[in-house]
Structure formats: C-alpha cells, structure tokens
Amino acid sequence: MDRNICFIIFAIFVAYTARDLFFKSYQPSSQADAIDSVKKEIPSMSFRQQMPTIKILYCYSCGYQRAFDEYRKMIMDQFPDLTVIGSNYNPSFLKSKLAQLISITKMIVIALLVANVNPFAYFGLQTPQFWEWMRQHKLYACMMTFFLSNTLESQLMSSGAFEIFYNDVPIWSKLTTGRIPSANELIDMIDNQHKFFQTETFSGGGSGDHLTSHTITGRTL
C-alpha cells in the first residue's frame, strides 16, 4: 500500500517536472537578451512606422504577475496608442541549469525510493543511515525530497526583477533600484519618453537613439 502511494506521488512529480522542463516557453534571461527579444518581436520598420512598445520583464515566481496586470491596464488607459507586453525574467544561465539539475536529481531520488533500489550497493559503498531511513519511510521521504528541492528551485529561479523598457530602452530596473516604481513614477517616465518619441517622429529627427537619455532608475538626466 505504501509503495502504491509512493508510485502515485512519483507519477505526479514526474508530470509536473516534465511540464516545467519541456513545455516552458523560452524567456529572456538578462537585459541584453530582453532587448534582443523585443527587437525580434517588433517587425523591422522605420521609426516613424513603428508603434511605441512597453515591455515589462518580471519575476513570475515572486508574485509580480498581478503587479504587471495592474500596470498594464493603467498604462493602456493612460496611453491607448502604446503596446504593452510582458514575460518572465529568467535568472542567470548558471542558476537556471542548477535548478534543472536539482529537479532531475529529485526525480532520480524519488524513483530509486519507489523502486526500492539501493544505489550505494551498486558501487560497493556502505549504505548511509539517512538512505536507510528514507527507504523505511518512503512516503515521508518522497514528500520531503519533493518540497525541499522545490524550495531550492524556487529560490534559484526567483530573480526579483521588474524591468521596464520603452522601445528597447531600459527606463526602470528593480534589480538596480531595489523596488517597483510607483504608479505616478511610471506614468511620468512613460509620458516623458512618449513626448520625446512623438517629437522625434513628427520632426523626422532620427531613429530614436536619443531616448537613452533616461536612466534605468527612472530619473531623467
């Protein structure tokens, strides 16, 4: 009975882990990747024809999805001509791979427990006491392995980011400032950039590279 329960739990763990590993869509992992991603999503065209775009990269595991939804609605209410897109901001390559390694290790450990396999015996090693305890308490060991590994994965994947770009140009970075901008700050930043964008568009003044006069801390130089 205990073995059947462990097998069911293992099947559920495998399903969720496989979904995370193989069906998770690609997300940019840095500001440089984010800017490249925006450029790929926006068709190549002249600056006059290009519609202004706000891109927000946020930490989904940090619970910033709701903040993004609220800010997106607020921006679109204030600036109907803006396009607002958002996606998850992944951590560094090293952290992502380490999280995947922990996830795979979790599956292997649970599989060994369910199958009642002692990996140490295959290598002629003495079985550690913790493994004997896990074999004797399979249900608790499986649950403990699952939740502990998930906690570590969550810590590694939580970037804490809330990065805002206006036409590829970073105008706010929570990674730099340590906080999400207030509603008034965000509206003011976008308004300043938007006015400059419209001025450049109507005057025919170049490709919009001068938008970089904004710092990512949200203060206009």
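The record above closes out task 2.4. Task 2.5 opens with a second protein, given below.
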Amino acid sequence: MDEPTSGLDARAAAIVMRTVRNTVDTGRTVVCTIHQPSIDIFDAFDELLLLKRGGEEIYVGPLGRHSSQLIKYFEGIDGISKIKDGYNPATWMLEVTSEAQEAALGVNFAEVYKNSELYRRNKALIKELSTPAPVHGLPMETTLVVLEKPPIHCSETAVYNIHSHNVWNYFWDLGSKRKKKQDVFNAMGSMYAAVLFLGVQNATSVQPVVAIERTVFYEKEQQGCCVELPNLLIQTLVYGVIVYAMIGFEWTVAKFLWYLFFMYFTLLYFTLYGMMTVAVTPNHNIAAIISSAFYALWNLFSGFIIPKTRIPVWWRWYYYVCPISWTLYGLVASQFGDIKSQLDDNDQTVEEFVRNYFGFRHDFVGYVAVILLE
C-alpha cells in the first residue's frame, strides 16, 4: 500500500491503520509506505525497511514495542543523540539519519548497517528461507494461475481435437503413400496445415492472457518461470501421437521423435512470438494486427506454396529467416529425406525428389534442429 494515510485526518488515518492491523492479525503480510506517521500509527507496524537517499538500506528489522529495537540500534551508533521522552520515534529516526547528520558525524549509515549484527542475521535468514530454491514452486504457482482460466484451455483443447478429426478425414494414411509426386505433396500439405493452423492458434490465444497479466508476467519472467513449456509438451504429445498414427508416417523411433521435436518447438516459438508482440505493443488488439502481417509473410515464404528452389534469389534471404520454413524442412526431410524407393511418375527416388524440388537434405536435419533451438 502506497501511503494509505496521506491526505487523511488523524481519526481517518487511525481507522485505516486499524483495518490494516486487523488484516495482518489474520496471518497476511501487508507492506506499506508511510509519510510522517504519528506515534500511534508507527507503533502499528512490526518491522521497518528504512532507505537513505539513493536507495541504500540503513535499517531492516523489527521495530519492537514502542520502537524499542529501532531506538536501541541507532542510539548504539557513536554521535547519535538520545531520543527525548515522548518524542515521535519516526521523526527522531529521520532527523538523526539525515544527510546533514551523516556529514556532521562523518559516517555512512548504509555502511554501518552492512557491518552490523542485524545485517548478518538478515542475510542468514534470507539464506535459510531460500533453501531449497523456489525453482519448482514458482512454475507450479504460475501453472495454477493459468489453469484458473478454463475457457482458454477448453478452447485450445477443442481446437486440437477438431484439427485431429480433420486430419482423420482428409489426411488418413497419406504418409504411407510414396509412389507419386502428389503423394509427397499431400503429406507435406498435412504438415504445413498443422504447423500454420495450430501455431497461429497458439500465438493468438496467448496474447489476451499476457496482455491482462503483463505486470505479473514480467515479475515471473525474472524468476525463471516457464509455465508454457510443460503445457506445450502435453499438447505436442497428445496431438503428435494421434496425428502421426492417422497420417501413417513410418513407425521408427528416430522419425517419431523428430516429428515430436519439430512440432514442440514450432508451437513454442509461435507461443513466444505471441507473447513478444504483446510486449512491444500497447495492447493485444494491435499485437493481433501486427502478428497477422507476419503470418502472411511466413505463409508465403514457408517453402510450401513456393519451394526454396523457385524463390527469386533476391527474396531467398527471407526464406532463411522464416521460422516455418525450417519447421517444414525438418519435418519433410526427417520423414521422406532418406526414402530410396522410386517414384512411379518420375525417374527419381523420393529422396532425390525432395532434395531437388524442395532443397531438403536428410543429412541436414540435425542442423535444422539447432537452428530452431536458437
């Protein structure tokens, strides 16, 4: 609370602080900044964080009954005058720690505090309370906050289920058909549709959430909270297993894991892109407009509508900076880039066709994975 008693008369200020005190007595922690508190208001506090000009700490600790511990601490410093009977401890504290008093005594109260037993006790308490580090509790806390928004997660789940059903209807067993060029195009089309549709859905759905909780998100970001990672992993596993089986891709451990890998990091970079657009724009409405422009460019330079080998040289640089192009490269090259069977309508193998037409090489899949990680 920022100066809850400012602008109030003595009676109103007392009522406010009594309410704050009652809240604290229920076991909650309340932090207040107070400007020139009276004796009664100052006595309502349990602990004090006192800063000098510049933000350095000069006292952090309990006040004690009638500010006894605060008074004892400052009176223990050489040259500090004793407090007079009935004098306001808050006023006395500010007077004896002023810049003029520091200059007169030739001391730095921040250094005095850092060399005190009180400082060492505080550091020991911080170390004790920080063990073990809260790296597991913070993601769980943020996960619970995210799960408190069931409409968002229900809509995402519904979208994934609907898309899986569409895959069942339109792309059933396309991955096992490799006799014609069109079969390869169809299989790549299923990948392209999944990447673009689900990626845009993830980026769009996360924007209003981040916009509403932007301040909290920044705080959690500093604490290393990555709540989206497990959520996206679950989405990838559920969607990937169902769709991989429906499309009929080759069931080998390496190809299946590559499929999950590229789908996971694709959903991740779309989600993070949605967060970024909210962070650099005033609100999520403008973020959605800006995002749409990039979706159109990514769609055009993804390598599906126009393969890399047919993009004009002076525009090919954008293909290399388009994230979807690397996703499709990894998916197609890992699934079809090592197939030696001959195409019926072409004198090339599937591997040669994928390399010559799309520019995808199976031996480059590892490098593609590194590029997506970066």
